[in-house]
Amino acid sequence: MKLTKPRLALIYGILCISIFPILVKLRLTPGLISAFYRMFFAFLLLMPYTLLSKNFKMPTLKFALLAAFCGILFSSDVAVWNIAIQESSATQASLLTNLSPVWVGIGSFLFLKSKPGVNFWTGTIVSLFGMVVLVGFEFFIEMNFDKAFLFAVLSGIFYSIYLLISKNVLSKVDVLSFMTISLFASSIYLGILCYSLDQPFTGFSDAGWFVLVLQALICQLCAWLSISYATQHMPATRVSLSLLSQAVITSILAWFFLEEKITLQMVFGGIILLFGIRITFYDKVFSLKRLFSKN
Questions:
Q1: Which of 190, 280, 193, 269 is nearest to 10 (CA)?
Q2: 99: alpha, beta or left, given left = phi > 0 and alpha = psi -120 to 50?
Q3: What is the C-alpha separation between 209 and 38, in angstroms, rounded?
Q4: CB 199 within 8 A of CB 33
Q5: pLDDT tens for residues 87-124?
Q6: Whether the Cβ atoms of residue 72 and residue 186 lie closer than 8 Å to each other
Q7: Nearest CA-CA partner of 191 in 46, 85, 41, 63
Q8: CA 167 to CA 102: how far, in whole Å?
């Protein structure tokens, strides 16, 4: 049961964040201000509950500052990813952002006591190949190495650093307290950034405001409370690689809501990607011989 709960939380969190690229592609609000309201509304929704239920526990100064730093890292990730999606394509932005398992693996190898094993690197290679098949090889030939490209890569780096640090913080701080502190820091940081860059805080349509609230409730609160819980109980490398499955779910949602075409190649790539993620959940060293063995 101890192992099942974090896995279920991770699956639920992935389902919640998978709708996010669809909402961003609607372009109802600027990317940077969208990131601000995602954090700010989530904080306004979470803070009363944590205070009234007395679930908020102030950590030591060190871990409070680290939780706040995690908020700045995560909000930076969301902000640059929003801009990358709106200035290029959701496909390019999602692909480059999802290189984060590579950065997490390297960071874990260099800085954490728990080193990535053979299964992680095997699963990473298989999953990244599945991602390439999913978006198509021709995509890489046409890729533009512009500001959007840089922002998408930067998004993945921000997220990987966030995941490594939050793994350490969540070993000492409960999830609700961590989320409250990080969202507070995110809101202040992005609020100052948006104000200094003359971003519009008002003037959106009713649909635009609805999408902003939906991002805060589903894509931030529901998703990251679940993913933070999973991060607390699972290796950071496994969590980061599992998040690649978001690309598969997002493709299905885009087909359903935005009428984007799903090809046989995309289905095949998605299967490979999910198989790569499954490899990382094997307790023993993965091998094809063991996989197909009757014993």
A1: 280
A2: alpha
A3: 11
A4: yes
A5: 765 555 566 666 666 666 666 666 666 666 777 778 77
A6: yes
A7: 41
A8: 16
Positive or negative, the CA dihedral 18, 23, 25, 30 is negative
pLDDT digits (tens, 9 = 90+) for 175-207: 999 999 999 999 999 999 999 999 999 999 999
**DSSP 8-class letter at 285:** P
Q: For residue 42, what is the enclosing H or E element?
A: helix 31-52
pTM, 2 dp: 0.77
Query: How many distinct structural domains can be found in the chain?
Result: 1
| Tokens read off for 41 | 């509304």
Residue 208 neighbours by CB under 8 Å, 6+ apart: 28, 29
Contact 251, 91 (CB under 8 A): no
Separation CA 178–CA 67 (nearest Å):
6
Given a contact cutoff of 8 angstroms between Cβ atoms, the answer to whether 123 and 64 are in contact is: no
Tokens read off for 260: 């984007």
The token duo for 92 is 């390019």
Q: How many helices (H) and strands (E) does the chain have?
A: 16, 0
At 164 the pLDDT is 82
Rounded Cα–Cα distance for residues 69 and 178 (Å):
11
Whole domain around residue 129: which residue ranges? Answer: 4-292
Nearest to 20 by CA among 206, 249, 226, 219: 219
Tens-place pLDDT, residues 64-92: 999 999 999 999 988 887 877 777 655 55
